[in-house]
Specification:
Helices cover about 35% and strands about 20% of the residues. It contains 15 helices and 19 strands. α1 runs parallel beside α6 and α13 crosses α14. Bound molecules: adenosine-5'-diphosphate.
């Protein structure tokens, strides 16, 4: 074997880096392998926020939240198909995961709203910069400080086991080194999902055939094959989420925080058609029912100013703007009188504090500060809810429901936490909490061997 470690982590997304740092801090010698030439996976693309309840940043802003509320929102969003024991882990550790990241140097002090949430609990950097890129940067910096052995261009091929069925190492293939194996007491599979693998997606959910995806190129699911080969059971693979708002022209995801900060969705008749902050599955389905199967996110300067990320979309050249709604309507070819009337009516709803048309719960701002903006959006594959079956200790389970000795898994590679539909903001929360847990438990397991 070319090397020996206590804990070997596969995947350099949020789950993998959290596991690596946590395992190191629990006393383990750690190696992290990543098949791509760059770190960060889907995690670094996450733009919305990190959901957590009863946190210090919430308290500082006077936001009242409860663990029960986060749990019931998560279950409702998942159509009650979530594994409740895993949801408890997610919810009960969410606040301590914010503290953990803050202790490592993160800024998660801005708290906004995401779809399906009863209160503001989506934590993100001050000014609304992308949460995923920030969290990955912080975790990467911490892994460098700890001198954790990170190997890029290195694909996990096979988990090796001893004659008792316990993990003894990992066979990898380095792009420039070829195959070699590393001895390890414990392996953490944090390889993410398979949203970028459209043939695989379409086989499980034919409605999604040919869909574009928000995912990074490495989200192909080969880590799930490695896990299955090692005897891990898969759950919920058929639940695949389309993010409702991809910029059709830009091919990038437009974060839910744009809606959370006040944007509305308008169809080609110039009318609203859905509660913009319903869950992603419902919002995506509603957009697909509109003429042209796309819609427009419409907002004003007050929303633009509230979220840094919007400048990025503007720079991409995919955000037509005009000083009046009528002018904007002409550019995007929707009915101008209807658009103006829809926005006026929405503004009345905001002023009254109640959305009489679609029961939208959060109504942050009237849209009356020109310029006005529109982004054409439609759904794209975003998150694969299913994956490796784990227990609340992040141990990978076999078909009989028994933990595979030394095999742990965390993040999008696992199934059960989100049920049939993941809430915006719950991915970063999931990967950090379960990544930490997997890393700590893998280190503990190793120290007993
Ligand atoms: P999560 O959000 O759960 O952390 P990400 O998608 O952010 O998941 O990260 C998963 C990472 O795992 C990606 O960077 C991906 O390239 C990497 N990966 C996937 N399969 C393998 C594999 N077989 N070997 C090594 N790395 C892998």
């Amino acid at each position: 074997a070319a090397g020996q470690v206590d804990v070997l982590v596969i995947g350099s997304g949020g789950a993998g880096f959290s596991a690596a740092v946590a395992a190191f801090d629990a006393g383990a010698k750690v190696m992290l392998v990543e098949k791509e030439p760059v770190i960060g996976g889907n995690a670094k693309l996450a733009a919305g926020g990190m959901n957590a309840a009863v946190t210090k940043p919430q308290a500082a802003k006077g936001i009242k939240d409860s663990l029960e509320s986060m749990k019931s929102d998560t279950m409702k969003g998942g159509r009650n198909l979530n594994d409740t024991a895993l949801v408890d882990v997610l919810v009960n550790n969410s606040s301590s995961s914010i503290d953990w990241l803050t202790g490592l140097g993160a800024d998660l002090n801005d708290v906004g709203r995401m779809g399906g949430a009863s209160v503001n609990r989506s934590h993100r950097p001050t000014g609304g910069a992308g949460v995923g890129a920030h969290v990955i940067q912080v975790l990467y910096d911490n892994s460098v400080k700890r001198d954790i052995d990170l190997r890029l261009n290195t694909r996990a091929v096979e988990v090796l086991k001893d004659d008792k069925g316990a993990v003894k190492g990992l066979l990898v293939k380095g792009q420039y080194t070829g195959y070699y194996w590393v001895k390890a007491d414990a392996v953490v599979i944090a390889t993410g999902g398979f949203g970028r693998n459209n043939p695989r997606v379409a086989e499980l959910d034919p409605k999604l055939k040919g869909f574009i995806a928000t995912n990074h190129a490495g989200a192909t699911g080969d880590g799930l094959d490695v896990a299955a080969e090692a005897g891990a059971e898969m759950v919920d693979l058929e639940y695949i989420q389309a993010h409702p708002t991809l910029s059709i022209k830009g091919g990038v995801m437009v974060t839910e925080a744009v809606r959370g900060n006040g944007a509305i969705l308008i169809n080609r008749e110039g009318k609203r058609f859905v509660n913009e902050l319903t869950t992603r599955d419902k919002a995506a389905a509603a957009i697909l029912q509109q003429k042209g199967k796309t819609a427009f996110l419409v907002f004003d300067d007050s929303v633009r100013k509230s979220l840094k990320k919007i400048e990025k979309y503007i720079k991409l050249g995919v955000v037509p703007s005009a000083s009046s709604l009528n002018e904007l309507a002409k550019i995007i070819e929707v009915d101008g009188a209807n658009l103006t009337a829809s926005v006026q009516r929405y503004n009345q709803n905001v002023a009254a504090g109640k959305d009489q048309d679609f029961e939208r719960q959060n109504l942050p701002t009237e849209l009356n500060q020109g310029n006005f903006y529109a982004i054409e959006v439609g759904p794209g594959v975003h998150h694969t809810m299913g994956g490796i079956k784990i227990d609340p200790a992040a141990e990978a389970l076999n078909a009989k429901g028994k933990a595979i000795p030394g095999l742990f898994a965390a993040g999008e590679a696992t199934g059960g936490v989100h049920g049939a539909n993941r809430l915006g903001g719950n991915a970063i929360s999931d990967i950090v909490t379960f990544g930490r847990l997997a890393g700590e438990n893998a280190a503990k397991y190793s120290s007993k061997r």
